[in-house]
Write a structure and sequence with these properties.
The protein is α/β, with parallel strands linked by helices and 207 residues long. It has nine helices and five strands; from the N terminus they run βαβααααβαβααβα. A five-stranded parallel sheet has the order 2-3-1-4-5, with helices on both faces. Bound molecules: cytidine-5'-diphosphate (CDP).
Length: 207
Amino acid sequence: MSFTIAIDGPAAAGKGTISRAVAAHFGLAHLDTGLLYRAVGARVLTGEDAEAAARCLSAADLEADTLRSADVAQAASKVATIPQVRAALVDFQRAFARRAGGAVLDGRDIGTVICPEAEAKLFVTASAEIRAQRRYRELLEQGAETSLPEVLADVRARDDRDMTRADAPLKTADDAVIIDTSEMSIEAAVATAIAAVEARRAPDVAS
Ligand code: CDP
């Protein structure tokens, strides 16, 4: 029996950390779907066509060490507005979601478009300022040269593109539990997410 957990939210809200912890807690596989768009964005930055790149992504593309850079993040959110790119990535995500044993997927449209039937849906968010501070610290740790105002502008530009695109815009699924991590520690956010999933688990899959 499979159990799908959909975790959506805006840039740098803490989805990645929460998703990994939730997957480990429930013993489920995890897919960071943002990596798919980042991998397409990275290929486009080298001159490739976006749709062609989306159609032939390989596991090696998802391991490139440039994927976390700010340039690739912006390129990802641009290719993510192209319906043909999104369409090329749907089957892989849906198959992953329904793998035996279940899965956690995080992204922007998991609970609304990719897995509208997911057993548990979380929408993880935080204020733009807090998200920018967190991403700024991450980028500094990677050795990137940037400033907080620049990161805040990038986060806002990406939020705007993600929320206003016509195809699969970022929005809260009607049945999602909203977790605002602005004032939460990582531990508190993870505990809140696990409790929310527990509350959605059907009695026959509860251990
Ligand atoms: O880590 P962060 O939250 O900053 O971004 P990400 O999850 O790696 O996603 C990078 C970009 O890919 C986002 O800004 C979206 O434009 C796009 N994306 C999407 O459109 N749909 C998804 N399911 C996941 C990511």
